[in-house]
Structure formats: structure tokens, C-alpha cells
## 1
Amino acid sequence: MTRIFGAKSTTDEVLEGIDLTGSRILVTGVSAGLGVETARVLAAHGAKVVGTARDLDKARHALAAAGADGVELVEMDLASLASIRAAADTLNARGETFDLIVANAGVMAAPFGHTSDGFETQFGTNHLGHFVFVNRIAGLIADGGRLVNVSSSGHRMSDVDLDDPNFETTPYDPWAAYGRSKTANILFAVEFDRRHQGRGVRATAIHPGGIQTELGRHMAPGELEALVERMNETQRAQGLPGWEFKSIPQGAATSVWAGIVATADEVGGRYCEDCHVAEFAEGNEIRAGVRAYALDAERAKALWAKSEELVGETFPA
């Protein structure tokens, strides 16, 4: 009988009884939070895990503290195309395949700024960085493998803006920028799934839930609490229960579920949350569901073309 998981399920519960010996899995952003927990639980179940991090010393300490033994590290700064390309070259030179890539790393609500290549920080780091990295190592994903992009319910705040991706003419808002980048994560998965499913490689995007991690380091004191209270006011007005933070093991559970437990056809080209595939939702609240624009196939193709234009590389189907 298929086990049913939900918002409170943890990584250990999702992977209970599953042996990943012989699997190779890549996780980006293994220096804190969800990345560390994802790497830990996969390694604990026998997978050979390769993790990327901008600060390798920080990653080593975080992984050791979590008991994540044997995780191999590769240096990569997602805000630098030179660093991304160097990391991809390193992995391609080794030629070892992966059964799963979890594109986990990212930033949230950052003040206005630019990556080293001149892209708006959140779009450049969260989307373009992973876009270049994953596409450069796409040939290393084994037939039948998967890509899991860690997105967010924050995608509901804004669609991508293909005319002004770097806020050159649009007034900057950190949450609008975050929303754009998270929508881009989903659209990237949609198009990657279309391009690679011919050899059984499927891609999906997930929302981990609200977790108190280093991701919120750019937020002012009290800003997160105020945001939660505004969300709960909306919930109470609709007679719905209040919003709750997840633990880190609960937050990482959906990545593990979508990458290992769910069937490929169930999650391929979709958006998942709380260990299930999300339904479309177009209301003003951001409690659950996915906006239709985030799964629009033509929008996904247009973002892919724009992303290639921005980074100066073409990635064939």
C-alpha cells in the first residue's frame, strides 16, 4: 500500500525502509539548512552525495555537525558564472553520473544588487545560476534520473518579467524579485522536463514550506514575524487555521519525496508541496497551490530562450 505523506512528514519518515546504496545524488547549497538536511538523509540511506557550496569550510562544519558523513564537496558560487562553469567542468571531467540533482541553494528578499555578471541578485542566483549549472552537467544525469528545483510559494507573488529581468526600469521590490526567481525555478523545471523526458529524465519543482533558516538573513528584525501575521490575518478571515513554520527535516521532506519516492510521471513537469503535487490556486493568499503562469509551457520556453540570451550560452534539447 502506498504511504501518504504530508506537511508534517520528515525526511526520515519519507525515506523509511528505502536503500539508496549505489545511487549518486548532487545537492547544491550544503552549507546550511535544507541543503545540509537533504544531504544528511540521503547519505544516511546509502547514497553517494556530492554537495556544492560557496564556502567549503562552512559546509564541512555544517555537515559534520549534522552527522552527514562522506559528502563530497565542490566549490561553487551561484552568483558567478565563472565559478559555476568551473564547477561544471570539474564534474564533467570526472564523468560520474547522477541519479538525482536537487537544486536547493538560493537567496531570499535580498536588497537590490547584482551578481558578478550584472544580473539582479535573486534572479541571477536562484534561477540563472542553476540554469547554467544544471544544463552544463545535464549529460551526467543518468537515464531515468531526476531534477528537483527548490522553488517556493513565493512564486505566487510575481511572474517572471522577460522584458525587464534585472529591474532596470521597474522599481525594485525584494519580494517581487524573489517571486520572479521562484517562478523561474518552476518554469525551468517545466521546460527541462519537456526536453529530457525522452530518455526518462524528469524534472519537478517543489515548495519546502516556511522554515526558519539562513535564507531569511536579509530580512530586518521582526519582518518575518510581521509577514506571518499578515498571512494569518488572511487565513483567519477565511476561517482557516493559522500558518505554522516547519522544522528543517519537515521542510526538506518534499525534495526527498519528489526526487526518490514519488513516481516520475506523477511529478514530472509539476510543482509539489507538502509531499504531494499541488493544485492550481489563483487567490490572493499564498498558503498553498500553484499559479497557472508558473506551469505554462509556452512561458517556460520563452524564459529558457531569454535565459540563454542573458548568459550567452545555448543548451540544445
## 2
Amino acid sequence: MTSRVAAAIDTARAEGRGVFVGYLPLGFPDLQTSIEAAVTLAENGADILELGPPYSDPVMDGAIIQEATQAALAGGFRVHDTFTAVREIARRVDVPVLVMTYWNPVAQYGVDRYADDLLAAGGAGLITPDITPEAAEDWIAASTRTGLDRVFLAAPTSTDERLELIVRSTTGFIYTVSTMGITGERAQLDAAARTLVGRLRRHADAAPDGQVRACVGIGISTAEQVTGVLEYADGAIVGTALVRALRDGGLEGLAETTRALAAGAASPA
């Protein structure tokens, strides 16, 4: 099966630009508004949606995202709400929808059941920040069977052997961590991200289709940073700035921020 996520990146590349990946937590400030927020992202320039079901121990998330996910949990969000949200979003917009989830909820739900329900809802795949390829045999099998993308993370501290394994195991794109630590906004992106993308590309022969597609996340919050990242990467991932815009300005504020960030991706890559 063709990866919808890879196709979105390839289409943007053919147009001489990179992709803008927008992250929002599901269930914040409530389930229906989070659905409307995801649609707002897609309608205002996001090429790929990254939606995070709230989790009780979000070890990678900064304060603003943690605050939002805790509010979603307090509002009664449940795992099955993920598929309800993805189904409605996928019905309304023609943008690939990735779910970024910690692994425990998937394991508790059942890996094959989760994959089948995500596929049925119209989802494109999973980003799994806390499971490595060698520990993901069940998910690799389920995603291969269903055609869902499996997005693993690569960090500046990863060895070349690990990077090759990540390249071999990943479909869609590799989530390239710009800095060590939690998500959030930083005045300057770590130069390690540029080096890491270059290291990943040296392992292109290991990729399923011979191509390394790398999107950089963690710390990107301005259109200028988006443009800078796309000088060397295929995509820029923004989360905290979008969550803040939704929190402080509602859907209208989110739309305005999305358009501004998407303009950074529209610059020639």
C-alpha cells in the first residue's frame, strides 16, 4: 500500500517546498472542539496532522501540552474517542492523520485491534515516541498488514547502527528530534538536528523505498524556524505554539497561527 504520509511529502517536494506538520492533543479543550481544531489546521495550511490522545504520564511533553492533556483526561477522554475523532476529521479533510501515542494505551487496547480501528477510521498511522523498532515487533507486523505508517524517533544521541535500524523500520517519515529533552519552544534550534538529518540520509539504502524522509520536531515555534528547518529536512513539526494559540485565541487564533507557520513552509525548500 502507498503511504499517504510519504505521498504528501513527495508532493510538497515536487512543488519545491517542505511540509508543515501540525500537532494538537485530542480532547482539548473538549472532544468536539479538538476535532474542529484539527480541521482548522488542515484548512489553514497543515500538510499532515499529528494528533495526540492524552496520556497520564507524558514524559516527552512540555508544560503547555501537559496542561492541555491533563484537561482532556479530566474531561473524560477515553482511548476509543481517538477513533471517533480521527473518523470525523478524515471525513472532512483530505490530509493524512497520524496519531502520536505513547505505547501503553496501544498495548492495553490490543495492537491488532488498535491498528484495525485506526485504519477503519481513516487514520494514516502512528508516531510512537516511547517504543523502539526492536521492541515493536507486533506493531511492525500489524502496520505492515494494514498499510498504516509507523513513525519512529531518531535523536542526536542515536548511534549509526540504531539510525540504520530506524531507517529500515520506519515508513512515512522519521521523526527527527531537534534537541534532547521535552517538547516546547526554544529561541534557537539545536544545530544537532541538521547533523542528524544528514546522518539519517547516509542510510537511505536501508529505507523500504530507498528514500529517507525526515521531519524535525521539538522546539519549532515560528515561521522563520520552519523555513530554516526546511533548508535541510523534509518537514517541520510544530506543537506547543499551536496548543497555546488554541488555548489563548480559540479556533480563530489557531487559524491565524497556522497560516503564519504554513507560510514558512511555503518558502522554497
## 3
Amino acid sequence: MKYKIYNDVRAKLLNREEIAFLDVRDEAPHATGHPLFAANFPLARIELDAYTKLPRRDVHIVTFDDGEGLAEQAAERLGALGYTDVSCFEGGLAAWKSAGGEVFIDVNVPSKAFGELVVEVCHTPWLSASEVGALIDAGEDMVVVDVRRFDEYRTMSIPTATSVPGAELVLHVPDLAPRPETMVIVNCAGRTRSQIGAQSLINAGLPNDVAALRNGTMGWVLAGQQLDSGQTRTYSAAPPESVETATQRARAVADGTGVKRATRQQWATWSKQQGRTTYFFDVRTFAEYEAGHVPGFYPIPGGQLVQETEMYAPVRGARIVLVDDDGVRANMSASWLAQMAWDVWVVDGLTAEDFSVVGPWQPERPAGAQEPAKPPARYRRPYEGTTAPREAMQAYLDWEDGLVAQLERDGTHHFKVWRK
């Protein structure tokens, strides 16, 4: 068994070299404390997820745990699957702490910390729950757009809100608020997705006043205000002229943030996964993907990819390639990934014929791989539903406030926020 120590992992991250730093504990213990770029990769799901999430078999892998022996088990199982460069982090979480490593709690921390950095750099406008509630009660000219997944929106939503998941904003908000005088309020359950969503509209040059709802549905509850449930309001198909304008806006943002353009030949070469890990993502909706997609691209809506990047691309330092069929969602999603220090490319020049494969994603898995009899222990997010204690909601929001300081102490992120 090979072992790595703190300096080995840190050097890879500082040099922006590829590393799959995998926390193989269940999600619940992972959320109690882990290094910033230790992607959660539960031991119970290794055979199910490895070939999709670790597409290059000779990628540098370091397994991580809390010293209970899970890292060694994971290394053995990854070796049995054909991975050739696998080590364990010696001493687990305690060794990381004793070496001076910064420890982060919760899940999807790189994206959440980045969202806080965006607000600090861009001064993204925001309004409190009481302020937004007063505007709604007064019948002001405004629209509220909820950027979470539709299932989250249906569970609970701000009164009057319309579901427009993150990557769809630049494409659809102009038709929901066609008058420049209409204010646009962007909300999620907490902070990150609303902050990124609001700044996306600002970056894309929407003429309306735009603000994030500070602290989202949690802030709404903490302010003593009533949420709706079971709502179904959503966007309609954008007319061609709106798509054209949104495409131009998204392309300008992507170019400004350093997004690169991939040719068909590059894409074909990278799909062989030789010498460099490459992830291929289709960032449209799941329904659009199943109706017709490009072979080899994994479906994940762009807003979800930006929010949960390490769940889908656990190899830090890898290349990411995005596609869509309108030039809006891929470019806007790519613009954020580029600022998060990913080497991100968008495939241009695709036609309807390229989206030829019908049906859901078909993962490659070893023979006999089955769902675990006992699913990995999942971390219950304080922003899920309405039953979390108010103290837990407030503690979560206070934690997000401290993430930028943690980023500075950690020093391995390479994030660079773009301002128009």
C-alpha cells in the first residue's frame, strides 16, 4: 500500500496538477470536516461511480478517511478496477489537521466558498427577506425567480416565485421581465445559487435592476414569513429573437472569463482519456438530454454542475468540456467554472444532427456492480424542507459568512473572480 502526506497533496493542488483526492467516508461524516478539495466518494459506491467520475485509469488518486481504515479498503477496490496510481492519505483527518491543513464542514464547499468570494469582489446586490416581502405586499413591478432544482422549488418557495434553475436564467429571465423597469429578485435556499444567479444576469448585461434574496428560503423563515408549497410556475420556451440575444450575451461573458473553444477533433482526441482527465457534460435539462444528446456527454444541468462541481468532477485539475444546443447555458456555466480555476472548453458548431442519441445516460460499470444494500449515510442539509431547527439554519448562514477567510487560510483554490 502506498501513502501520501499533507505536503504531497498540497503540492499537487498548488501546482494545479491533476489529483483525485477522495474522501471515501459517507456523506454525513464527510460533512463534519474535510479538506477543501477532498471530494466525497463513498466507499459503498466505488464500483458504481468510478468509471464515470474517474474516467482516466492512470489518474493520480489519494484516498482519505478519518483513520478508520476506509482509505485502504478504497485503494484496494480501485486497484481491482484497474486504477494504477492509487495511494492513501497517511493518518487521515487527524494528520491533515496536525500538519496545519484547513478543515471545512458541510458539502459542496468549493462552490459555496467561491460564491461568497464572488459577492465580496463584485458586491452583488441583495435584499433582505423583509424588504422583498414588503415589495411583494406592495405589488411592486418585480419578478422573483427561484434558481434551485424544480423539486426543491415545489417543496417550498417564496410567494410569487417562478422556477428558473440557474443555467436557464440568462435564456429565460428577459421574457419573464421584458420591461427594463421590472426588478428581478433571485432566490435559492440559502446564498450561493442566488448570488451566482444574480451575478450571472448582471454579467450578461440584463438591463433590469437585479438583486439576490439574502439567505434565501432560510432567511424567509427566520424573518417569520410564510413560504408557499406545491407551486408549479415555470418558464416557457424562449422565442428565437430572445435566444439570439441571450447567446450573444453568454458568449461575451464566457470570452471575458477565458473560456476556450473546442473543435470536434480535440473532443474526439480527449475522449480517449490519454495523459489528461477530461469530463464531458451536457448542461441542458434532463428532459432535453433524453430527447436527444451528443454521444459521450454526461447530463447535468449547468446550475447544478456549478453548485456541486466536485460531485461530478472529483479530479481537481482536469479538463471540462461543455455542450448545449443554444450557446447560452454552456457558455454561462463555463464562465463560472473558469473563474473556479477549471480548464473549461465549450464545443462550438454543433447541429441538430449531433444530438442523435435518445434516452438516459448509460454508465459504464464493472460486471456485477449493484447498489449497496445500505445506502451511504446522507448529510441532512439545514436548507432542505422547513423542519430544520432555526438554530441550525442560522448556524449554517453564519458559517457561509466565514468561508472567504477559510479560503485565504487554505490558499490552494486559485479562484479568480471576473468583473465586467
